[in-house]
User: Fold this.
Amino acid sequence: MTDVENQGQSVSDAPDLSEVVEVMGRVRGAMETVIEGKTDQINAALTVLLAEGHLLVEDVPGVGKTMLAKALGKSVDCSVNRLQFTPDLLPSDITGVSVFNQQTRDFEFKPGGIFANIVVGDEINRASPKTQSALLEAMAEGQVSSDGVTHSLAKPFMVIATQNPIEMEGTYPLPEAQRDRFMAKIEMGYPTRTAELDMLDHHGGADPLSVLQPVTDSQTLVRLTGIVKDVYAAPAVKEYIVSIVEASRATDSLRLGASPRASLHLLRAVRSRAAMAGRDYAIPDDVHALAVPVLSHRVLLSTQTQLSGRNVADVIAEVVAQVPLPDRR
Assistant:
C-alpha cells in the first residue's frame, strides 16, 4: 500500500466500514425509487450527510431539487422540517421566538423551523438577505441564540437548501458568508430521455414519496458519522487539498478564492466519500472528484473570466488540473 493510501495505519486501528456501505446503500436505493437517473446527485447528498455538512441544490424550476431533499428526509427516521423561503419570511420563523406565558408570567422559547434533524429550505434565495442570515449560526455551530440564550440543535443536523439561478425573477443572491456554510453545491440537470419516461410511468398516477419508508434512523447516522471521522487521510492527501485551495486564490481567473473553511469541508467530504466506497483511507481521486462541488460555490469569477463566458466549474477543474498529484512513495 502506498504512502498516500494509508501507509502505516495498523489494521486494528482501521474503522469498520461495512455498516457505512450497507446503510448508505439502503438509503441510496430508497431515494432512487423517487429520483430516476440521478445517482451522482444522490451520492453527493449522502456524502455531505455523512460528513455532517450542508447541501445547496441549484437549478431551474421543475427538475427535482425539492424532491431530492424530501426523498433524503423520508429515507431516514428522524425529524424533518420544510421551510418555504418567501420575501415576507422573518428570521424568527426560522430560529424561533420568545413568547410571554400568561400562566408562568415568564417568557418561553418557541423553536422555529430550524429545529429538526434535516431542514429542507425550499427556494432559499427568494427570502431577504436578513432572513437568509438567520441560518448562519445554526449551520456553522449547530446552535441558535435567542435573547441571550443558546439552544443546541439535535444531531444529526443537515440543511438541504434549493435555489433557482439568480437570473430568475424574484431572487436575492446568497451572500458569500452564507454560501461558504454549505459544504457542497450540486445541480440536478435535466433527466435523460429514458429517465424522463420512467418518471412519467412512476409519477404520473401517484406520488412515490407517499409510499417511501425510512430505511435507517438518526442514531445510526450519528454512529456512522463518527466512523467516517476515523477514515485516514495521509499527509500527502492533506497537502494536495491545501495546494488546490491555494491555487484557487492565486489564479487570475478568480477574484475570490476558496476559504480555509473550504479546506476543512473538502477533507471531511473526502473522508465521507472514501467510507462510502468501503475504504478506510482517502486517496487523491476522492479530492479530484469532490473539488468542483465543494469549491465552486465559494469563489467569485474575475470580470475578464465572466466576459469570456467561462463558468465556475470549468475554472475549478482547470485549477485542479494544474496542481500536481501527490507522489506515490
Notes: The two ends are 9 Å apart (CA to CA).
